[in-house]
Amino acid sequence: MAARDYGQYGGVSSALELVGERWALLIIRDLLVGPRRYGELAGGLARIPSNILAARLKELQAGGVIRRVPHSRVIVYELTPYGRELEPVILALGAWGFKAMGEPREAQIITPDSMTMDLRTAFQPLVAASLPPTAYAARLGTVELFIRVEGSDLDVVRGGGPADLAFAAGADIRRLISGELTPDRAITTGVVQVLGGRNELLDRFATTFHLAA
Amino acid sequence: MAARDYGQYGGVSSALELVGERWALLIIRDLLVGPRRYGELAGGLARIPSNILAARLKELQAGGVIRRVPHSRVIVYELTPYGRELEPVILALGAWGFKAMGEPREAQIITPDSMTMDLRTAFQPLVAASLPPTAYAARLGTVELFIRVEGSDLDVVRGGGPADLAFAAGADIRRLISGELTPDRAITTGVVQVLGGRNELLDRFATTFHLAA
DNA sequence: CGGGATCCCGTCAGATACTG
DNA sequence: CAGTATCTGACGGGATCCCG
């Protein structure tokens, strides 16, 4: 049960002994969005074997990174305060990995939690601060997200709602966020379909969520 | 040879497919200090099997993270520009892991490169900017480092040199950096031995390198 | 001697089935 | 729904060997 050790005394090796095992940081990524049940984690991490998920949850719990909370009938996993301090790590890792993303491979899926964290990664609070509050309803593949930007605050939740701009796109929304595609070209090429609201608001979206490749 | 995939399309999973395998981030940590030869990496990562080191180097090269550079007779590995962009990730991970460090376990060693990166992690550029240039000669366990702070710049190299303060300590230098121990108590308890220079300069060291637990 | 490649073995991950 | 049990295959660990 004890995580495998690297035989070194240092910050990075200590961190990797706690969260360096396969799947661990993806579990933490999803828990950064909010507390999740076992089945929700398994659903978001489609290809994780259930025994591995169970093992990781125990290890992360033993390491003080997550907590197992019984809520009346159901059991929920959530990050401890110390686990929540991994947010800068996940955001930095996500920003770096974002630049390496190419076209989605066969059988690569988008999940609500991974998309939510990618949006948080690309979020530009300084840009957003000077823009009026805006709500977006985005359908990305099969994932529906309701995105509210207000000042330098960002809130992303699953589902829809009354939005200033509603749009649908696929995995290549990445090309809009990276700046590879202008908002205009994204619409004319069909990468983004505007379902409601003014087209110009996609400009605002693209400047609010931007991560150069 | 292709890295194992997570079946997800997202920034974090993409990153982990490139640098998420065991030992990979420790190799990158050491290469952030400077280009290294195969044997130097093997020396700094004492417990890595040579086949794993060889496999990781190939994978990281294929992923565009490192480069294999023949220098006349010898071969040197170095980070690509894209690989160097992992520095914020390593620093964030190191800062997080630093807080989880307890006493060194049996057979846990300190290496020059891991110590160098830990110092970079703990470095407070804003504090340093308002202090006069200072050079420290530190012997940490068997590791000798020459640390120069000038304005908000930090330079750490192996070996010694003419320093304003020379001191020796063990792994529990961590307790000074975390603030668990004041500089005064660190000296009186013998955690830090001042070998040359004025004792008061250890105050400056402790404020320049600080990471609360 | 530096820079690996090869071999064997143990452990972990992956897939599926099963249970309280 | 929240895991446990079991089996198989792949990867990591350790030692040894090889080649320029």
UniProtKB/TrEMBL annotation, chains A, B:
Keywords on record: DNA-binding, Transcription, Transcription regulation
Pfam families hit by this protein: HxlR (PF01638)
UniProt-recorded name of the protein: DNA-binding HxlR family transcriptional regulator
Gene Ontology molecular function: DNA binding
Domain HTH hxlR-type: 10-105
Gene3D superfamilies per record: Winged helix-like DNA-binding domain superfamily/Winged helix DNA-binding domain
Organism superkingdom: Bacteria
InterPro entries documented for this protein: HTH_HxlR, WH-like_DNA-bd_sf, WH_DNA-bd_sf
